[in-house]
Amino acid sequence: MRLFTTVSALALAISAPALAHEPDAIRADGHAPIGVMGDHTHEAGEWMFSYRFMRMEMEGNRIGTRGVTPAEIVTSVANVNGPPATLRVVPTDMTMDMHMLGAMYAPNDRVTVMMMVNYLQNEMIHTTFAGMMGASELGRFTTRSEGFGDVKLSALFGVVDTGQTRLNLQAGLSLPTGSTGERARVLTPMGTTPTLVMPYPMQLGTGSYDPMLAATLTHQAGHWTFGGQASATLRVQDNDSGYRVGDVAHVTSWAGWSPMPSWAFFGRLEARSQGMTHGFDARFAAPVQTANPAFLGGDTVLASLGVNWVGQSGALRGQRIAAELSRPVYQDLNGPQMERDWALTLGWQYAWGGGQQRHHN
Ligand SMILES: [Cu+2]
Q1: Total domains in the fold of the chain
Q2: Residue 211 CA, ligand 1 centroid: distance in Å
Q3: Is the distance from CB of 135 to CB of 129 less than 8 angstroms?
Q4: Does 6 reside within a domain?
Q5: Intra-chain end-to-end CA distance of the chain, in Å
Q6: What pTM value is reported for the model?
Q7: 23 pLDDT tier (thresholds 50, 70, 90)
Q8: For a tag on the chain, would you pick the N or C end, based on fewer CB atoms within 10 A?
Q9: Domain containing 298 — which CATH number?
Q10: Residue 11 gets which letter from DSSP?
Q11: At 7, which helix (H) or strand (E)?
Q12: 154 exposed, middle or buried (CB, 10 Å; 0-12, 13-18, 19+)?
């Protein structure tokens, strides 16, 4: 009985409407974990500027759900660009750094427009195997690509907003501003080092106008917040290089706990499915898996932990800082393909203008 009383008192203390006593408080859980885009809208006249940095590490390879070694790849996987009959070069590590600048503006309470500009830095480490067959290592080399990616424009429509429950729909377009012709020096199985156009994963853009659609539902209940988002990016046209990157379907859901308005802690699951690349770019003629359009895409499930902080007073009021770390829990890849290891996203967001920052409460 005493335990029950204690638990009740504790529950009451936790669920006490502390937030209601601070009508001016800005809630950290008013935004989704930083890895989610387009989760919230703004009120008429409000602007938001954001910067996100994401580092993603990939290490090792798999075919489907099974890990494969470089030696196994170069002795068993056919080279569609042959001869040689099998692949001779294997990527082993990749680091992707993405700097994302975002701007949001709400011309009215119903519509928020959003623009995102990415600057990408990719690095891929490869092992080259000597000659036309066998698994004798010749050497290693690293390729790099860097530059602006595809600019994304979209509009968010607030469909439901009860204060606690919100639903928004997003429609957008990814513009082909990122290069599809990045080159790098490689080490061939014959020991030569020509400069070639790099295969699909090292290019900075898709080369096509890609429509994007999303729906996001969030619900706040006391110190808890729940959210879910489903989105799709469609590749509806071949690019000038003769190929079309696979469509992406994506769902994610999260739960957040906010012990006080300034802080929110999140757990999130994310599933992503990408189709194979269609068509073929004849410039990518190397005996490496990344030059085969059938070895792109697959299904991935990620689990993430995140934290949001928002300043309440003075110059820090409305400044948001957030971090999210993700690890894959399931990967079924059209492979051989490099597998994800971990990703870290850091972000800063600031909104101003408008009225009482209704959507940031
Ligand atoms: Cu915003």
Answers
A1: 1
A2: 21
A3: yes
A4: no
A5: 38
A6: 0.89
A7: low
A8: N
A9: 2.40.128.130
A10: H
A11: helix 2-15
A12: buried
Cα-to-centroid distance, 102 and ligand 1 (Å): 9
The predicted-structure confidence for 215-243, as pLDDT tens digits, reads as follows: 999 999 999 999 999 999 999 989 988 88
Task: Report the alpha-carbon distance of residue 82 to residue 132 in Å, rounded.
Answer: 10
Instruction: Tell me the CA–centroid distance for residue 10 and ligand 1, in Å.
Output: 35
| Surface-to-core class of residue 224, CB atoms within 10 Å of its CB (0-12 exposed, 13-18 middle, 19+ buried) | middle
More confident residue, 276 or 22: 276
Residue 4 lies in a domain: no
CB 275, CB 245: distance < 8 Å: no
Cα(17) to centroid of ligand 1, in Å?
26
pLDDT > 80? residue 3: no
Residue 18 has pLDDT above 90, yes or no: no
* Confidence grade of residue 20 (pLDDT, cut at 50, 70, 90): very low
Q: Is residue 32 part of a domain?
A: yes
Range of the domain at 161: 25-360
Note whether residue 13 is domain-resident.
Answer: no
pLDDT tens, position by position, 283-302: 878 899 999 989 999 999 99
Query: Among 118, 96, 108, which residue's Cα sits nearest to residue 46?
Result: 108
- Comparing CA positions, the residue from 330, 320, 322, 335 lying closest to residue 49 is 320
Neighbours of 298 (CB within 10 A): 21
- Interval between CA 99 and ligand 1 midpoint (Å): 17
